[in-house]
Write a structure and sequence with these properties.
Shape: elongated
Strand order of the largest sheet: 3-4-5
Structural class: alpha+beta
Distance between the termini: 43 Å
Order of helices and strands: EEHEEEHHHHHHH
Number of strands: 5
Length: 224
Amino acid sequence: MLHALTHTGLESYTVRDTRRLSRLQTPGEPTPDDTDAGFLLGLQPFVGVTHLCVAGQVLALAASGPEDSVSATLYLLRLPPPLELFAECSRIGTSHGQHAPAMCLSLLEEAHMVLRPYVRWQCGPPPSDELRRQHARSCAQIGHFLLRSPAEEDWPRALPWLRLAGASVQDVLAECPEAPGLDSYLSAALAAPDQQPLAYQPANQALGVLYDRAAEALARCSSC
């Protein structure tokens, strides 16, 4: 996916599949579905585009004129730095909210894929602390979205994202106390061999959630 910012907002072009490449670069990490990687986003149409070229931080689009004309139009679009692009993708994704959850998730995943090469694949110079923070934030955003999804099949997908974000059980309890998938997350997270014992208050809160929603999972939560 190639992104540019115009006066009317974000423009996205499917030119490479970073999601499929991510499965090769970091096979043990959660990756967005690569069958859902192609979409066009933007308000400004570029009609008749025949060629696309990247030069530095500029995306050049060459568009043909009418059939009876030899004229052509050249568009020069600015390619934004990763943090700026991440913020714009996240903003647009979040704005879809409840009325278009599939588009919201797709944009949050694409926002994450903007940052992943710079943080996880060591593309370019070492990532800044802010880039790492926003990468963790992007993982947490996806994990929280999946936990809040009404679709039960989404809930198990949240744990790997939240682990990649470095989110603790306490963090998730504070951020998603009413999420439909919270008991699914707690059942898996607390039963994990590497889960550290919780302090009294978050442990009591976690056990309360499981007692109300998934009592059968309590036996597996030895970490509490």
